[in-house]
Amino acid sequence: MSTSTARSVFMGPRLRRLRRDLGLTQADMAADLEISAPYVALLERNQRPVTADMLLRLARTYKIDLTDLAGDGGADHTARMQSILKEPMFSDIDIPPLEISDIATSFPGMTEAFLRLYTAYREEQLALADRKAPTLAGTASHSDADGFDASDPVAEVRRFLAARRNNFVDLDDAAERLAQTTDGPGGFVERLKARHNLRVRHLPPDVMLGSVRRLDLHRRQLLLEDSLDTASLHFQLAQQLAYLEMEAEMSAALAAGHFTTKNAEQLARRALGGYAAAALIMPYSAFAKAAETRRYDLEALARQFGTSFEQTAHRITTLQRPGQEKVPFFLIRVDPAGNISKLLDGAGFPFAKHGGACPLWSVHSVFRTPRQIVTQWLELPDGQRFFSIARTVTAGGGAFGAMRVERAIAIGCAAEHAGQLIYTQNGAGPAAETPTQVGVACRVCHRPKCAARSSLPIGRELLPDDFRRQSVPFGFSD
Prior knowledge:
Elements: H1 3-6, H2 12-21, H3 26-33, H4 37-44, H5 52-62, H6 66-70, H7 75-84, H8 97-106, H9 108-131, H10 153-163, H11 169-182, H12 188-196, E1 199-203, H13 205-208, E2 213-216, E3 221-225, H14 230-245, H15 247-255, H16 262-281, H17 284-293, H18 298-305, H19 309-316, E4 330-334, E5 340-345, E6 374-379, E7 385-396, E8 404-414, E9 436-437
Helix pairs in contact: 3-4, 7-8, 7-9, 8-9, 9-10, 10-16, 11-16, 12-14, 14-16, 15-16, 18-19
């Protein structure tokens, strides 16, 4: 076997993506590389290997890094396939890891088709769960017969994120490449100036007229409110940079969402912009390694990466890159009235589709102890256990008289992962043997002796209190 043949690789899909990213036809690439157009077609269909000589020619011609071009030989697709095939629905099918690797490498088109079908299946499963959720009178509008609000853009975006476990590999990869050129948040301003000819200016709130960030392309400047704290400032710079340089990756992710309304698509785009900004400030590989090293200590991670508690908590829910998965977390953000303004589920917590969360969960009581972390073991009626970390966060402010909004953040994981967290180290926090018995929501919780109950469970009959008044708000039949 010749040296050239030994170093040959099949990389048709990556070659096709490179050509499309460069806006070239097969004939254009053939002319640039001084080969025939049919030969380019054969390379893209994996019917001919790309030799070491051809790799060098591609790198020189298009000024790209050789390691980026060579890629991982299907390792990403292999990892994603292996992750999906762990699902219970495939448990009775014996598929050796070597077969998965062979399929991902030899049939990348079929692999991509399988991954898309699985993602679509997950979205439909989540939508079906919404349709079958119990409906509270007066809570749905434009609903179908099952109480599902088809016009709710927030619910649609939550399903979009949940189906992908709140992880977008292409955005993470693009962010890591971009982060290497900016040398951290301190280099964002220089990147905006050098690459986009944009000058960053900091202006007072009365001049910004209600905006914290505004891109003025006419004057080639990015305007930022001067009362932003450091973490918020870095985030706004990163988000604008992501919108300018990661448009292709965000558009591809949006196209895969197939949103039914423009509002849902816009909300999803905003979510992806925030995801990309966090990935720039906290690159996946570095952040995932730090998270494990520090045992998921949110405050320590926030100090290390110069981020806020909420930014750090949000990012920690995204560490589910196939093949490099870390502890799966869920996240919820509520205000003092119990309104849920952010919900990310990567840990299988059965959040209520309708109605509020359980008042016994500490996320509702941490407003009494601002900025202090409160840990709690939770046990659901079916016996499932989770470990929760809750703390208040503040939005706004920055100047005397400026409006501040207090919210509470809770992140959590399944009980089997709790031992990896610093919050359970050396017996810290409440004992696992005495969890708080919570429900998903009062309407679907059948615990009979809950003093915090606000409504009768569905399908239970209220007992009369003519002769006996129980100590709980609702006494119902067994």
